[in-house]
Amino acid sequence: MDRFAGRTVVNMADGYALVEERRHNHPVVGELGPDFELKRFDGIGSVRLSSYRGRKPVVLVFGSLT
Amino acid sequence: MVYVREAHSTDGWRMDDSGWSIIADAQNTEERNAAAGQTCSMLQLPFPIVVDSMDDLVAQRWSAWPERLFVVDADGRVVYVGGEGPWGFWPRQQTPPHRWNEDDEIDHGQPLDTFLESFLELQHGSPVDGPSG
User: Fold this and answer.
1) In chain B, what are the domain boundaries?
2) Residue A57's domain spans which residues?
3) In this complex, which of A5, A33, A64 lies closest to B78 when CB atoms are compared?
4) Measured between beta carbons, which residues in chain B are less than 8 angstroms from residue A24?
5) What ipTM was assigned to the predicted interfaces of this complex?
């Protein structure tokens, strides 16, 4: 867990430092995508990424409103 | 969609000129769920949205903050890694990503739709879906 975990990004320096710190930590092509299970925002169950294995590809969009 | 920590919250790195600094950063799961719901409603998103934990674990593991695109094939393997947002967030070829300035030399990567076109051809037309819960 890095130093930005769990806290608001307060300014540009924070934002750029966060991106720089994680720049080389992303999954690479060919690697098994790190599994996760997260709940839907509407409370209708949860989703586990690995549940799609053997079924279909998945497009992951990470983001927020702002 | 995986909803992550706000990039430009009103109480954080606010960017009024973007027009999108309109909510505060969530302080708990309920607030983040509400933000995700507002996003779904405002943007009319057609796919399910899951919410990252408040310690941002999934976004960290995927290096996905503030925004990023990936494609995982049916074997669970990563086949597309989008560039770091915002400069590398490029879902459609027709809408190039944000540029720092006119002369920036940032590698914006390949647009997602271009990648999917060839990927789906190889997959013989297999459907691609987001998390369906």
Assistant:
1) 1-55, 67-133
2) 1-66
3) A33
4) 63
5) 0.91
